[in-house]
Design goal:
By secondary structure, the protein is α+β, with helices and mostly antiparallel strands. It contains eight helices and five strands, in the order E-E-E-H-H-H-H-H-H-H-E-E-H. The chain folds into two domains: 89 residues; 92 residues, Arc Repressor Mutant, subunit A, CATH 1.10.10. Strands 1-2-3 form a three-stranded antiparallel beta sheet, with helices on one face. A two-stranded antiparallel ribbon has the order 4-5.
Length: 196
């Protein structure tokens, strides 16, 4: 979701339910479209749409106004998909606050350090929870490592207490030790790859 500008804050006071605004550009970036969606509903259309000149747009195009040509570029279905994707990413960030650092670390680590193994455990748990059919194969893609290497790193993560098995099922749960190690590594080295 885009941060709501001050000028939009009171516009949807009459709208039912909690909402969030999205922003896109149309007409070659000359106009911006703000759409409000309810976040507490399964509705699939915006409740409000605001079109206005975009900052830095072509002044001559903006002076012609919001023509039918400009309006034809407005695509509510596309706005819905964009909103749903943003909402999904926001939920993911709230559920997995270290996900960006974890993935960056998995791609950039040269050896199985403790912060790397903690990141591996967290990502493995996330993949298993999401229903990924083959979390290990997905980890191969993320890390750029072979199947055998990823499997041995997962075994090492279990051995060092970063990942615990969930009964006899495939999958695993990252331990509190893994969460602490990843959070500590992320806060110690901002902007860098964890553990390097």
């Amino acid at each position: 979701m885009n941060e709501t500008p001050v000028w939009l804050e009171g516009l949807a006071d009459d709208a039912p339910g909690d909402g969030a605004w999205t922003r896109t550009e149309i007409a070659h970036g000359n106009f911006e479209v703000w759409c409000r969606f309810r976040v507490d509903s399964a509705a699939t259309a915006p409740t409000h749409v605001v079109i206005r000149p975009a900052e830095g747009g072509d002044i001559a195009a903006q002076a012609r106004g919001i023509t039918t040509t400009v309006l034809r570029e407005l695509n509510p279905a596309k706005e819905v998909r964009g909103f749903q994707q943003q909402r999904k990413e926001l939920i993911e960030r709230e559920k997995y606050p270290l996900s960006e650092q974890v993935d960056a670390h998995l791609r950039g680590s040269n050896r199985p350090t403790d912060p790397y193994l903690a990141a591996l455990a967290l990502r493995y748990e996330r993949l298993a929870e999401s229903g990924e059919r083959s979390p290990v194969r997905k980890l191969m893609t993320i890390t750029g490592r072979s199947l055998g290497t990823v499997k041995s790193h997962l075994q090492l993560a279990r051995k060092k207490g970063f990942l615990e098995a969930v009964g006899s099922k495939a999958g695993g749960r990252a331990t509190d030790k893994a969460k602490r190690a990843a959070a500590e590594a992320a806060s110690t080295l901002p902007g860098e790859v964890l553990g390097e």
